[in-house]
Amino acid sequence: MSILVNKDTRLAVAGITGREGSFHTLNNRAYGTNVVGGINPKKAGENVEGIPVFANWADTVAETQANTAMIFVPPPFAAASALEAAQAGVEVVIIITEGIPAHDELKLYNQVKRDHPNTRIIGPNCPGILSPGEANVGIIPASFFKPGNVGVVSRSGTLTYQIGNELAQKGFGNSSIVGIGGDPVPGSSFVDIIELFEQDEQTELIVMSGEIGGSAEEEAAEYVKHHVSKPVVGYIAGFTAPEGKQMGHAGAIVSGSAGTAKAKAEALEAAGIRVGRTPTQTAEIAMELIGAPA
Amino acid sequence: MDLLEYQGKILFGKHGLAVSDGKAVTTVEEALAAAEEVGYPVMVKAQVLIGGRGKAGGVKFAPDHEAATEHANNILGLDIKGHVTRTVWIEHASDIETEYYASVLLDRSEKRPLVMFSTEGGIDIEEVAEKTPERLIKHHVDPLIGLTKEDAIRVATDGGADADVIEGVAEALVSLYNVWIEEDATLAEINPLIITPDREVKALDAKVTLDGNADFRHPEREGLGDTANADPIEVKAKEQGVVYIKLDGNIGILGNGAGLVMSTLDVVAQHGGKPANFLDAGGGSDAAKVKQAVELILSNPDVKAVLFNIFGGITRCDEVANGLVAAFEDLKPSVPFVVRLDGTNDIKGREILEAAALPNVHAAKTMDEAAAMVAELANKES
Questions:
Q1: What is the ipTM of this complex?
Q2: Among A28, A232, B202, B359, which is least packed, fewest CB within 10 Å?
């Protein structure tokens, strides 16, 4: 098993005709992901290397039974496209787009939660989800990862690759790797994804990679303490980040005394979660906890 | 982006919040002309993005021309914790009877806007939240509905606002919420929100943070913020579409992806190094972009060594290597470089660097090794 994307994934992509959108969609298909359609209102009826393009999400879902959406459209239109996918009944909506206004994310989150409770939003500003050997939805370089028993959830893309690679060098593979994104209002938080890993049979260890800003790591610490039986290893980036500066991600900012890496690491440790001080050490802790993979 | 007080007040005024008449000026002459215009007594207020302006002598009361001259002279150019005052705001001084507090912010945990109100205004609100949390009213707003007048009246009442100003406070809260929504703010704060002797509700200060991701729908924002105190390298980086943040150390850092760069800074610090900057070259950096980034890093004269930490996903290591070679041809850097390339096309990238045999460029196999090497090199150089 794995979480969120797998062999049953039927992926459709908003923004499939764009440069980035087409490149990554075709990469995902080459990996084995079942890509059933794409959306561009101006290019309905055309196709991208055989993938049919539709005018909107309702048509796409009606024609292809897509159950997973990937959003690649530019920031001004991304939240609207994600909402449209939810309205069409898509269950997993993964928003790769970076640069969406916080208020758009806020309204999207609240509207989906109220009107489409069966839809799960991942991202925005995330690298997507990879379930090695099953499906890849997004921009994660799949060649570095193989199937295995470690579930990874992270706010950052490249840091995920770094940690995943450290784990891979120790022989670990992954059930799923989930990027929840670096924005202030992510559709899914650490808690949501950790809950899925806890239920997933294949996952034996959970690695969560956090960073400065907000309190999602602290909430995850509290959740793990009370609801998670599997071992969890943490990593937090941004110990050296100055106060009040946005460190690349819109959500990575220390405000006053809130959102510091130190406070997050302490909260995780207080909940019994061991925290690596470097990506390398994080992988070493994983090794100590569940031993070298067979 | 954080706004200066006067920029925030202009936004407040636009959305119907009462603020004093005032003018932003940059010279003593202009300050005096502005004082005449708004009428004495006036306040002379330093416009910098740092707390503690009053204690630093950056906020003064001027009853007349003579005092205004003295204060404007002293405050213009005043260095407040590293922020040099280039602009002062001259406003008509208000009579204050009571000081309240009001704010709207994005509660990331609840994923809702949060309206806060307290009758304990004029002091640090974190102190109020800690010592007398019952005096700080918190009200989460459904962003699909907005803050209604009825909600606002309840907040003002629960917070203990004087009965005769509850209506006025509620109106101010609704206006502040409108500022937050319509200006795409992540924070809109008034401390203090004052009540004058004739029971007018007025914003005496303004703290506003705008969401940079919404710049595309707010062309009017151009030039806002504290441009006078912005770091020139940060400004140039922004023009080039690169995220660069100046830090205090001497090791230039380039990486791809915000999380990896943050992590790189941490690991360098653990090895005893001091990062000079955060630079996220972004996904899919090509050679030209890498060269530009090297130029940015080296324009900081404190830099004694540079670390490239790349884990290629979309970014291809051969492109990064080509960019570095091009940068060396043009810029002929005098400081050592440590380069760690992993991920997409890493072998090709390493081959390019080896073939180019750049002077004083050291290859590292892992992130840890790279951090240790660059820290040692920088410490040797300084």
A1: 0.93
A2: B359
